[in-house]
Design brief:
Strand content: over 45%
CATH architecture of the largest domain: Sandwich
Helix content: under 10%
Shape: globular
């Protein structure tokens, strides 16, 4: 009996894994972009993406058609040999024919693949001013890819140990730009160290003499070369990984030619809806002035366009309306809640000083935005009292919202003064740097949330009439219980588990009404949390895609929107008979809790449904149980493991609670997976809404 039970547990785990494994995961696009006003054919690689039937972009002017690539089993096995750097996560391929309207602005847009079962993660697709030039993998130093027309975007990927070669002609005095997008295309690679394509580029003349080299661009991973050619000649550009790794997801796009490239736009900060006069620096621009007005608050990106094409994007940060922004004030300017300061370090003032009028027991919260807005500054801020004593000094503060940044160099200072009076704030670069590109914004906040909240997946795939779940991740400290508020769901939708009771992660379920046609419904998720006696505030929960870096680190990559994607219904739907907002309780002496699961089946559906706990943990157990073909409901008993509860009995202050749901699985076909191993695929895997179990003493 014991062996049989172990076998059933193992089978259940395999079924769950198989169901999860059917999720679409995109690993790379090649080429990862195209010229505005053209049609391009690209290849996408990933896991289970051969099930994709549609492609979705974050701009309505980009459209695509998907064609699966049929490969033999032997070719897949060759890519999976342990002797190379290939990955099973890139085993499947599809072809995508993409049409780009001519008026689509240059930039990076989200591309997602869609199947009848849901959406994939996003990958960036670039719209550029210049045509693609696709590499030939057989190129070498003696037989390089010959680029006959510039400007162009060189598209390729590096093979293990490989170097790619591109030959072009240049004239004396031309300023050639070679700007790489590599990490920007695949921000994080889960099974690589470092966790991205660390590209290195070089330009040599016809005699092999190096005229330019780059392995990064300031603090950016992707390298850029800007070089004035010394003579009329034939030049060769090379690219490779810094430690010579390679495969299809080590792909790149290099904008090459006498093209505009902006190195800085000053000032780099403004107020939403207000005009800003900017000085522009860079090469091949043809102008150095601009007047801009940006309506969107927060982090933005600006480009420069001339008769050659569109430049790289440069960050620009905008404050909310109602805040006064003072640019480059005199030493000793006053920083307040309604007056922010935009400044930069200079040779004469490598330490800048400002005043803050402090009030006793009123917290001072100063945020510096610099590196997050493209600045070179690695800032240190310190606060001095009226006697000149340093009372607080801060260097780096992590900003979890910036999921593409791995080195967080901007500080946030928090201090509660003991007396009224003038205090002094100092800003300095840790390495004593200075210049226009050491710019920053100072803002004084009355309060800042002690946490950040993220929701994933950004597209919540829900069967018509069925239930799905999404997860809210909390970084920082959520001091008291909070509520989630879902906005935008039409009438008929229901949600459960919206009360956050603590912890870093919290799952929420959403149930679509029966009979709803497939459609995409944009929604917004907010968190309502207490800030004082009887006072509550709301903070937006940011939609993200999660990416893994170097086997361990997980990053939240902001997505374009949050939406519920309603798909075709499953042949059955699961529900519970109790009020989902009421906690199901155990006492420490209980043996089990009784739950009734109801199955709403289509008339012609006759398969048995295996029920199991949707969230496994060692405290709760459920014996294998089925809803038989002739049944429409089943009463189950979730048992409490008495041995696992011993530590909770010892902790008198603990009030543990757990989220739970019941999975209903219909078994499908058996599939070979590796030598001598078979896994049974779940034909259907539906869930009940989430409910909460709490232990009471």
């Amino acid at each position: 009996m014991r062996n049989r039970r172990i076998a059933l547990v193992v089978l259940s785990a395999l079924l769950a894994l198989s169901a999860n494994a059917q999720k679409l995961t995109s690993g790379y696009l090649f080429p990862a972009g195209g010229q505005a006003g053209t049609t391009v054919e690209i290849e996408a690689g990933g896991l289970n993406i051969n099930r994709a039937t549609k492609v979705m972009f974050s701009h309505p002017g980009i459209k695509g058609e998907v064609t699966p690539v049929i490969e033999s089993a032997s070719s897949k096995r060759r890519r999976r040999r342990l002797t190379d750097q290939s990955s099973p996560q890139l085993a499947d391929k599809v072809k995508i024919k993409i049409t780009i309207d001519k008026d689509v602005p240059c930039g990076l847009y989200d591309l997602r693949l869609q199947s009848p079962k849901g959406l994939s993660n996003k990958l960036p697709f670039e719209v550029s001013s210049y045509p693609n030039f696709i590499e030939n993998k057989k190129s070498s130093m003696k037989n390089p890819n010959k680029v006959t027309t510039l400007p162009a975007v060189l598209c390729g990927y590096v093979a293990p140990g490989g170097i790619d070669y591109f030959q072009f002609s240049g004239k004396k005095g031309e300023t050639i730009v070679a700007a790489v997008k590599a990490r920007q295309l695949v921000p994080y690679i889960a099974d690589a160290v470092p966790g991205w394509f660390q590209s290195v580029i070089k330009i040599v003349d016809s005699k092999g003499k190096e005229i330019a080299f780059s392995d990064d661009y300031y603090h950016h991973v992707d390298p850029v070369i800007m070089v004035t050619l010394p003579k009329d000649d034939t030049y060769t550009l090379t690219i490779h990984d810094s430690i010579f790794r390679g495969r299809e997801d080590f792909n790149y796009r290099i904008q090459l030619g006498v093209i505009p490239f902006v190195t800085g736009r000053y000032p780099a900060y403004g107020v939403a809806g207000k005009k800003v006069k900017q000085d522009i620096e860079g090469v091949n621009l043809g102008g150095d002035k601009a007047i801009i007005k940006v309506k969107q608050e927060g982090y933005n990106e600006l480009t420069y366009t001339n008769n050659i094409g569109t430049s790289n994007a440069v960050p620009f940060y905008t404050l909310p309306k109602g805040i006064k922004l003072v640019h480059n004030p005199k030493d000793g300017a006053v920083l307040s809640e309604y007056v922010a300061i935009s400044d930069n370090l200079t040779a004469e003032s490598r330490i800048k000083r400002y005043k803050i009028e402090a009030e006793k027991r009123v917290p001072i919260i100063v945020e510096l935005i610099g590196r997050r807005n493209g600045s070179r500054i690695d800032a240190v801020i310190r606060l001095r009292d009226r006697f000149g004593n340093v009372v607080k000094e801060v260097d780096d503060t992590e900003d979890p919202i910036q999921g593409l940044i791995t080195f967080h160099a901007d500080p946030v200072l928090k201090y509660t003064p003991r007396v009224n009076g003038t205090m002094y704030l100092e800003v300095e670069d840790l390495h004593r740097g200075y210049g226009k590109d050491y710019h920053y914004l100072l803002r004084l906040h009355s309060n800042m949330p002690s946490f950040n909240a993220f929701v994933s997946p950004a597209y919540i795939t829900t069967p018509s009439g069925g239930t799905s779940q999404f997860r809210v991740d909390i970084t920082g400290r959520l001091r008291r219980p909070a509520n989630l508020v879902v906005k935008g769901l039409p009438k008929g939708f229901t949600t459960s588990s919206l009360k956050l009771r603590g912890g870093r992660r919290w799952d929420v379920s959403v149930t679509a009404p029966k009979g709803l046609e497939p459609k995409r419904i944009p929604i917004e998720l907010k968190m309502e949390y207490p800030v004082g006696r009887g006072e509550r505030e709301q903070a937006k929960v940011l939609p993200v895609d999660k990416m893994m870096q170097a086997f361990y680190y997980e990053h939240h990559i902001p997505a374009a929107e949050l939406a519920v994607d309603v798909i075709e219904p499953a042949p059955y739907r699961l529900s519970l008979t109790f009020d989902l907002e009421e906690e199901q309780t155990f006492s420490l002496n209980d043996e089990y809790i009784t739950v009734k699961v109801v199955a709403d089946k289509d008339p012609d559906f006759k398969d048995p449904i295996d029920l199991q706990l949707g969230k496994k943990n060692r405290l709760f157990e459920l014996d294998p149980v089925q809803i038989l073909p002739e049944e429409t409901e089943k009463t189950i008993q979730i048992r409490l493991n008495p041995k696992a509860m011993e530590r909770y009995k010892k902790n008198k202050k603990s009030k543990p609670n757990w989220q739970m749901y019941i999975s209903g699985i219909v078994k499908g076909e058996w599939v070979k997976q590796g030598k001598g191993r078979q896994v049974q695929i779940a034909k259907y895997n539906e869930m009940t809404p989430i409910f909460v179990i709490q232990l009471k003493r």
